[in-house]
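Before going further, learn to read the protein records used in this course. Taken together, the C-alpha cells spell out the fold as the letters spell out the chain. A record is reproduced here so that you can trace the correspondence yourselves:

***
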Amino acid sequence: MVNQVQFTTKVNRIPEPMKANSISNVNNENGLNLNYVTIIQGRILKGVGGNYQILLSDGSQVTATPRGILRRQKISPYPGDIVDLSSESEESEQYSIDNIHERKSFLIRPAIANIDLMLITVSASSPKPDCFLIDKLIILCYKAGISVALCITKADLDQQDAIELKEKYKEVGIPIFILGDCEENSQEFDEMKNIMQGKIVSFAGQSGVGKSTLLNKIFDKQCMDIGTVSEKIGRGKHTTRHSEIFVYESGLLADTPGFSSLELEELEITGPDVLKGYPEIEKFESKCKFADCRHIGETGCAIDESKINPERLIRYRQYRKNMDEIHHYDLKKKNRYEK
C-alpha cells in the first residue's frame, strides 16, 4: 500500500507520455484481458465523485476512473499523484487509472500528494490568525519534507497586525510575505511568485483568509470563487470544496479547502516530530545540560534563556507533552497485548 507520509523516490513533475504498442491477449496484474491497450502517464489535478481530471505532458487533460483493484486494496488517488492510465484503443476517450507512482510527499490534510512547497496562508486580522493551526501545519510539512512559507494576507486592513505576526515567526527561518491591496506589498507579492517558479505549490490555511483571492491574483483572472467572513463566528465561509491543482507557468498551484481545526494525534505525529516544527528551539539542543532534554521545563534546559517567541514556546510545550503522553500510552498498550 502507498505510504501516507513520505517517499524518497523522486518523480517527474509532469512525466513524458509513455504509449504501449498493440498488445494481444494481455493478462496483466489487474486481471484484464484486452486486445489493445494504450498506456500513458499523467498527474491528477482534481477528483470529484470518483472521476479524476488528469494533466498529460502535452498540456491536454483527460478524465479517468480508478481500476477496481485499487479500490479493493483501499488505495486512493489524490491531487498531485502521478498515475499510469490505460484505454482500450487509441481512439477511446475512456481512461482507467491502473497504477499510482510512489509519492515523494503526502499530506492527509489537506489531502494532496507530491508538493514541493506549502504556502501557509493567514489573515492579518479578519479572521483572527490561528497560530495553533499555523504551527501544526509547519510540523506536518517538516515531517513530510515539504518546504514552507508564510503568507500574511489582508495587510491593507491592518498593517501593524501583519508586521507583529511576521515578527512572531521570523526565527523559524521560513520565507514570510506580507500581502495586501496596497502598493507597499506589491514587491513581496512578486517575491512570493519567484519562489513558486518550477515547483508544485499548495496553499493551505483557515477559511476566509484569502487563498482563493490570492490564486485569482496570481492568475490575473477569476478562477476561484471568493467567500466572506462570518460576522457571527468570526471565521471564513468555505468556498473551496475540494483540493484542486492548476497549471501555472513552469509549475503547478493547488488550492485546498480551508479548515478551522487540525489534530496532530490523528496524523501520527510524535514528540520528536513536534520539535522539528520548531527549528528555533531545536537549534538550542546542544546548549541544554542533558542530551535527552525535551525542552518542557526540565532542569538544565537552555530554552528559557533564549529569545524564542514565548507564545511559540508555550504551544511547543503543549504539543510535545500531548504527543509524548500519547506515545507512552500506546507503548504501554502494545506491551500489555504482547505479554
